[in-house]
Amino acid sequence: MAKQALILIDIQNDYFPQGKWPLDGVETAADKAAQVLQAFREAGDAVIHVRHEFTSEDAPFFTPESKGAHLHPKVLNEGNEPVVLKHFVNAFRETNLRTLLEKRSITELVVVGSMSHMCVDAVVRAAADLGYTVTVIHDACATLDLEFNGQVIPAAQVHAAYMAALAFGYANVVSADEYVQARATA
């Protein structure tokens, strides 16, 4: 049987309403992430938290050792759940993430977190390229409005476009309820 791990990407205080870089729908996404996290904990499956810190105090958010760079209380790590500290968009770049997965003989990843168009996208594509089978829980991810060439792209459209692209070639993309229900009946 394949071994799986839940990877929680950057569910950190600065992305919430009182933070420096609030995301659209982040509270609901974090609640869905917590739902999936609970299912993994109950099954005794591996859980790995990832948190981002920029290396400069001048960063717009996630400044080193700030409260905003801490994991959000809805998904705090417990017990033996490691926290991978990253300084780049891709959680595999210059971190011990791959080593943690290899030590546990993990072959399947379930990904939740933020931002859909950046760190979630990067880790999913990298994981697929490294040979992992990947599932993304779309309603447990959040992003924000983007602007390109004078046009504002609403967060919901940014999120949908990235989920569609990941579903096309990199991952199985499902809702938290679908995923948890499938786990319960497996």
UniProtKB/TrEMBL annotation:
Top-level division of the source organism's lineage: Bacteria
Hydrolase among keywords: yes
Domain Isochorismatase-like: 5-150
Keywords: Hydrolase
InterPro entries in alphabetical order: Isochorismatase-like_dom, Isochorismatase-like_hydrls
GO terms assigned for molecular function: hydrolase activity
A Pfam family this chain is assigned to: Isochorismatase
RNA-binding among keywords: no
Protein name (database record): Cysteine hydrolase
Organism name: Pseudomonas asgharzadehiana
Lineage, opening ranks: Bacteria, Pseudomonadati, Pseudomonadota, Gammaproteobacteria, Pseudomonadales
